[in-house]
Design brief:
mainly beta, Fumarylacetoacetate hydrolase, domain 2, 7-stranded mixed beta sheet, 5-stranded antiparallel beta sheet, globular
Length: 285
């Protein structure tokens, strides 16, 4: 099952992707949008989709749907840097003893199919293929036995980075939060439909059809369970939070010569059993 957030009837709505259609669902019992439906049993979600499909106005062709970021306004977007050893090495970093956590803001997100903005102040717009974890239940002081209980689903993320701004300070935040640089989607797959912790999945980025990154989520230094345990030593994770799990080697800045995204390019992020997140690039006016 795949759930999307889309613009419908003048506002955001949640839809269930069924082959080439999106069936627009009613508000979930909890009123929490896409996360609210992920919290419901699969049978209840299937029943709601079947009832909604009976009304023609609730059925939209996927190709015609105006998708929004899978979660348009996450409460928190927590990202991991250097979470694959080969990516740390290509940037001249040692294997970290503790994850490099940083935050993104919701205004930096974009939707599948939406043009990403290369900002006017930089031409060093880089790509990063990442697995994103969608939190569905509150969690604090999680352990290895219960950490995955808070995970509602998984999606694709492109941690679009302005490399020169990322290096202006010792913290990376400023280069990771330009408007409309971080697409999230195209949809969320429930955690129950993927391996525990989304391990063992191929992850790849392609720029204009050329494979740039190719790895497997089993190569993460801090897997999903460990990451959730570490984060909840510090903070309460809440429904609708997003955790971006870091990127493997092959990013543009580490190449010789460097390869950065420019207007007219198309970047694709694909994760096995989840889908393909695709975006074009335009220059900011």
């Amino acid at each position: 099952m795949k759930l999307v957030t889309l613009s419908h009837a003048g506002g955001p709505a949640v839809g269930c992707v069924e082959q080439q259609d999106v069936v627009v669902l009613p508000a979930p019992p909890s009123g929490q949008g896409l996360v609210g439906w992920l919290q419901q049993p699969a049978a209840q979600l299937a029943q709601a989709a079947a009832q909604a499909r009976a009304t023609p106005a609730n059925v939209v062709r996927l190709s015609d749907a105006k998708l929004l970021p899978a979660l348009p306004r996450p409460g928190k977007i927590v990202c991991l840097g250097l979470n694959y050893a080969d990516h740390a090495a290509e940037g001249g970093h040692k294997k970290p003893e503790y994850p490099s956590f940083f935050l993104r803001v919701p205004s930096s997100l974009a939707a599948h199919g939406e043009a990403l903005l290369r900002p006017r102040v930089s031409d060093r717009f880089d790509f990063e293929a990442e697995l994103a974890v969608i939190i569905g239940k509150p969690g604090r002081h999680l352990d290895a036995q219960n950490a995955l209980d808070v995970v509602a689903g998984y999606t694709c993320f492109n941690d679009g980075s302005l490399r020169d701004y990322q290096r202006k300070t010792t913290q990376w935040t400023i280069g990771k939060n330009f408007d409309r640089t971080g697409p999230l989607g195209p949809w969320v797959v429930p955690a129950s439909e993927l391996p525990p912790g989304a391990t063992g999945l191929k992850i790849e980025s392609r720029l204009n059809g050329q494979v740039m990154q190719s790895s497997n989520t089993s190569n993460m230094l801090s897997p999903v369970v460990e990451t959730l345990c570490l984060l909840t030593e510090v903070m309460t994770l809440e429904p609708g939070d997003v955790i971006a799990m870091g990127t493997p080697s092959g990013v543009g800045y580490a190449r010789n010569p460097p390869v950065f995204m420019k207007a007219g390019d198309r970047i694709e992020i694909e994760i096995e059993k989840i889908g393909v997140l695709a975006n074009s690039i335009v220059d900011e006016e």
